[in-house]
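Subject: sequence -> C-alpha cells, single chain

Hey, anyone have a minute? Need the predicted structure for the following. Not urgent.
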Amino acid sequence: MDTMRERFISTTSRLLDEDPRLAVVLADISADGFRPAQLAHPDRVINVGIREQLLVGVGGGLALTGVRPVVHTFASFLVERPFEQVKLDLGHQDAGAVLVSAGGSYDWPAGGFTHMAPGDVALLDTLDGWTIHVPGHPDEAETLLRQAVRGDDRVYVRLSLQQNDSALPVTGAEFLTLREGGSGVVIAVGPMLSAVEEAVAGLDVTVLYATTVRPFDSATLRRATERASSDVVIVEPYLTGTSTAAANDALRDLPHRVLGLGVGRKELRRYGQMSDHLTAHRLDPASLREDITGFLGVR
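Reply:
Had a minute. Here:
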C-alpha cells in the first residue's frame, strides 16, 4: 500500500492533467515525485527551492490571478516557518489555496526537531476561515484532496506516514459514528483511529472518527452525548488539547468534561523512531486505554 504522500503526488499529478486552473508550488520537497508532471506542465509545477516564505507568497499570488494553488512541503516548513505569509498573503488577502503537508508531528525523527510540527493545527487554528483535514489513510487523503482543489477557500491537508489499517468513507464534513456506548465519547482524529479502536475494545463507549477537524463538527458530538455520557476524550496526532476548546464550546450549555490526548509540549531529544514518540506521548494503545478508562471510569 502506498503512503499518503505518495498518493498525494499521484493524485495531484492526474489532477493537473484534468484541471487547467490547478498549479503546484514546491520547495524542493517531493520535487522528484512531481518531475513527470513538471515536464508535462512546466508552467504549472513551480519549484521555488528551499525558500518557504516565497513558497507561500507565490501560492498567494497565483490565487489572486484565479489559479488554484496546491502548496506543499513538510509541515514545519509549510505552517511554522512561513506563518506570517500564511496569515497575510493568504488570510489577509482573502486568497484561497490548498496547503498539503508531509511529515506529521514526528514522521522523520532522524531529521530532528526542525522537521517536527506537532503544533501546526493549533497554529492554523489562530486564523479565520481555514478548513483542516487530517486523513487517516491514503484513500481518505485522495478523497479530501479532490474535494479541496475544487473550491476557492483555504484548506490545510495534513499527511502522515502514520495511518490506519483501512479507509472509511469520509465526507469532508461530519464526524463518522463508528460505534455507540453509554459511558462516554471518544473522538479519534485521523491516523489515531486504529490505536483508539484497539484501546477501547470491549468498553461501553461511543467512538467518533474525525478527518475534518475544522470546522469542528459540534452537531455530531452533541448527538453522541445524548446517547452517552457527556464525558469526551479527544485523541489527536498533534498537540495535546488542540480541539478541547472546540469540544467545550460545542457542549457549553451541558454539564460535561473533556480530556485531550495528543503530543505533549516537552521536546524529546532522543529522537528514536516514530513508534518511540508515540509511546513517549502515551499514544500507543496500552497507554490510551489506561488514560481513557481512568478518565471515563470504565473497565
